Each structure stands twice: as C-alpha cells, then as structure tokens.
Amino acid sequence: NAGVTQTPKFQVLKTGQSMTLQCAQDMNHEYMSWYRQDPGMGLRLIHYSVGAGITDQGEVPNGYNVSRSTTEDFPLRLLSAAPSQTSVYFCASSYIGTSGGTDTQYFGPGTRLTVL
Amino acid sequence: DQQVKQNSPSLSVQEGRISILNCDYTNSMFDYFLWYKKYPAEGPTFLISISSIKDKNEDGRFTVFLNKSAKHLSLHIVPSQPGDSAVYFCAASAVLWGNNRLAFGKGNQVVVIP
C-alpha cells in the first residue's frame, strides 16, 4: 500500500496561473479531503468528498475547485493563483465512520506551493 | 472563528519527563477528539483519540483526558522521548457534521531535550 500520495512536492506559480494538485489513495477510502496549513493557523479544510461524484465545501473553499470521478483520486484545482494561496496543502483520506464517530484520517506528505 | 484552540505554541521538556499539551474547544456539538503528530516535511499522523462518552483513553506512553464540562482536553506523554519532538495538533469532530469533518487547532511544537 502506498497510502496517500501527492504530487508535486513543490511548486512555484506566478499570480494568475492555474494548476492542479494531485492526490491519490489506494486504501479504497470513501472520504477524501484537502487542507491547507499556514503558519500559526493550523490545518483548515478546503473541500471534501464522501465518494465518487460527491464533493462539498469546507472552511476555506474560495479559489479552489475539486472533482471526484473515481474513488482513488481527488485533485485540487487552483483556477487563478494568488499570493494568498501560498501554503502547504495536505490531502487526507479515511473510511466513513460507521458508528457515528470519526474514522482515522491518513494524510499525504503535502505539496508546498509558492505563488509569486 | 477558531473552534479548537491550542495555546502555548511551544513546549520544551527534558527526556524522561512528562509532556502535557492542552486543547480547548468552543463548539458543544463536538463529540470526538483526536491528536495528530506532525514531523517537518511530512503529513500529520494519527496519534490517539477519545469519544465524548469517555474521560480518559490510554495508548502506551500517550494518554488523553477529556473534561466535557470545561470543554478541555489534554494529551500526556510519559516518558517523553527525543522522537516525540514534533508538532501536535488537536482536532475535533461532531456526529451531526457527519462525513468525518475535522476542526484543527493551530498546533503545539514539542521539543524533547536529550
């Protein structure tokens, strides 16, 4: 099992450029999510998905799009990059808790994005 | 508005001593709490969790205590080891949220001095 993989590890963009951060998991998890981590801010939820074809917004969705066409993949798209999107991005996945609790989320290694 | 708060952003402790990390939350709907550990250049990894029906959960050197009336939880690491040096995130979830959504605190940097 590779777990949760993210590509690229590092990326530098110019303001206004677009790009897609890739996330894949091989654990057959229904739930996938994207977080961003900024200094002094902890992890904030951007978007999440509970299964193929189903996505929803998290805490800080503006400027980002997601889609979930397969169980394995959950790409995050930056439509027009802004310096405020400079951050470290983490993808996570988990089973959906069956007893009303929260199942353990597994995180990828992160993508460090700089927008100039 | 931060629903999960971790004050005292950094903690230094001697190897072998106890590390205590604190976490407060404001949303009374939270009913499941987790601690994640993060090393530099890696993603967070799950450490320990506790349901709101319990007040203590123990896993080896790690114990989490929950005080629902005070909306407070703490993580105890005994004894602390140099490999415990990392950032620790407190997280919370609510059944009513569904879908495994987590709210994270800002994290605490722990440095264990050999």
Features:
heterodimer; A: 116 residues; mainly beta; seven-stranded mixed beta sheet; four-stranded antiparallel beta sheet; 11 strands; 50% strand; B: 114 residues; six-stranded mixed beta sheet; five-stranded antiparallel beta sheet
Structural summary, described in words:
The complex is a heterodimer of chains A (116) and B (114). Chain A has 116 residues and is mostly beta strands. Chain A is 0% helix and 50% strand. Chain A contains no helices and 11 strands. In chain A, the strands form 2 sheets. In chain A, strands 2, 4, 5, 6, 9, 10 and 11 form a 7-stranded mixed sheet that branches. In chain A, strands 1-3-8-7 form a 4-stranded antiparallel sheet, with no helix packed on it. In chain A, strand 4 (31-38) and strand 5 form a beta hairpin. Chain B is mostly beta strands. Chain B has no helices and 11 strands. In chain B, the strands form 2 sheets. In chain B, strands 2, 4, 5, 9, 10 and 11 form a 6-stranded mixed sheet that branches. A 5-stranded antiparallel sheet of chain B has the order 1-3-8-7-6, with no helix packed on it. Chain B is globular and about 45 Å long.
Pattern of helices and strands of chain A: EEEEEEEEEEE
| Beta-strand content of chain A | over 45%
Structure class of chain B: mainly beta
Give start-end ranges of low-pLDDT stretches of chain B: none
Structural class of chain A: mainly beta
Helix content of chain A: under 10%
Q: Which band does the percent of strand residues of chain B land in?
A: over 45%
Quaternary state of the chains: heterodimer
**Overall strand count of chain A:** 11
Q: Number of helical runs of chain B?
A: 0
Give a topology summary.
The complex is a heterodimer of chains A (116) and B (114).
Chain A: E1 4-7, E2 10-13, E3 19-25, E4 31-38, E5 42-51, E6 54-57, E7 64-66, E8 76-78, E9 87-94, E10 106-107, E11 111-115
Parallel strand pairs in A: 2-11
Antiparallel strand pairs in A: 1-3, 3-8, 4-5, 4-9, 5-6, 7-8, 9-10, 9-11
Chain B: E1 4-5, E2 10-14, E3 19-25, E4 32-38, E5 45-51, E6 56-59, E7 62-67, E8 72-77, E9 86-93, E10 103-104, E11 108-113
Parallel strand pairs in B: 2-11
Antiparallel strand pairs in B: 1-3, 3-8, 4-5, 4-9, 6-7, 7-8, 9-10, 9-11
